[in-house]
Amino acid sequence: MLGKLIDLLGNHLLALVVGTLLGSELTRFLYRPKVIIRLKGVQPLFSDGGFFLSVRVANTGRTVAPNSIGNVTIDYESSDLMDPDEYKLDKAEESLPTYRLENIKLDFPRHQLVTPGKERSIKNSSLCWSVLGNPQKVDINPGSNENLEICRVQSIEGHGTKEKFWYLIFPCEQGWRKVRCRIRLRNGVPLSGKIFICPSNVFPTVRKFQILCDESMEYPTLSIENYSLMERLYYFFNRSLLYFD
Predict the structure, then answer these.
(1) Cα distance from N-terminal residue to C-terminal residue, the chain
(2) Which residues in 60-94 are b (16+ Cβ under 10 Å) and which e?
(3) Which of 41, 63, 111, 220 meets the CB 3.0–4.6 Å disulfide criterion with 213?
């Protein structure tokens, strides 16, 4: 009789522990933040021949997405990486934020982290957000959204070049205080990569992107692509490759 009672209590205790664990995981799943990446929309060209490309990051979940970081991976060709003073970019880039009030020392042309002489891969590297001060991290509350700066698109002609061309300026985690790199766009050849939104309490949301300009287009455009079902299944079992391949 005593043995049956002990077995019964043990079974109840096991059921209680399993139920608690499953209930906790179920609650965390149901009330997790859910991040969605959308294009912000095409913006008009500015008078200096450039404009910013950004995406809108929405939280449609039930809890905050805290300390959200926006990262980027860029699949660029070495020959397309521009030196900051190669084309005398100072006049065309005067519209970039200067942060004079912060008394931060800036190189001129602006300091560039990745140059032809200091080339390295750009994998899961931090961007900045389109709020005051361009911070690296933001909290995205349920039902709200924030805009992530992807790059500035800039045109240039003259200065010894034969024709007008477009190049992209990518910020770093310090915003536009220091730019990560400048990449020249080739006509009809898309620049590809991945955008990561990384809250501190849920797995990152990852999307593919392309920036393209050809002879039929007035200016470069950004497109965002979801992963296919087969790709999602593959990366489900190879998550590290999704972030770092």
Answers:
(1) 61
(2) ebebbbeebbbbbbbebeeebbbebebbebeebbe
(3) 220
Question: Is-contact 49 92, C-beta < 8 A?
Answer: yes
Residue type, 18: V
| Long-range contacts (CB closer than 8 Å, 24 or more residues apart) made by 74-79 | 74/122, 74/125, 74/170, 74/181, 74/183, 74/191, 74/193, 75/191, 75/192, 75/193, 76/122, 76/181, 76/183, 76/191, 78/116, 78/119
- Decide if 186 contacts 80 (C-beta within 8 A): yes
Tens of pLDDT along 190-235? 999 999 999 998 889 999 999 999 888 888 999 999 999 999 899 8
Query: Is 130:122 a contact under the CB 8 Å cutoff?
Result: no
115 CB-side CA count, 13 A:
12
* Cα 174 from Cα 31, distance rounded (Å): 32
- Selection from 173, 143, 166 nearest residue 70 by Cα: 173
**Amino acid of residue 166:** W
What is the residue whose two structure tokens read 């990852």? 206
CB neighbour list of residue 228: distance below 8 Å, 6 or more residues apart: none
Judge whether 154 and 163 are in contact, CB under 8 Å. no
What is the per-residue pLDDT across 128-164, written as a single tens digit (0 to 9) for each?
Answer: 999 888 899 999 999 899 999 999 888 877 555 567 7
Identify which of 189, 225, 180 has the alpha carbon closest to the alpha carbon of residue 39. 225
Query: How far from 76 is each of 92, 198, 211, CA to CA, in Å?
Result: 23, 23, 11
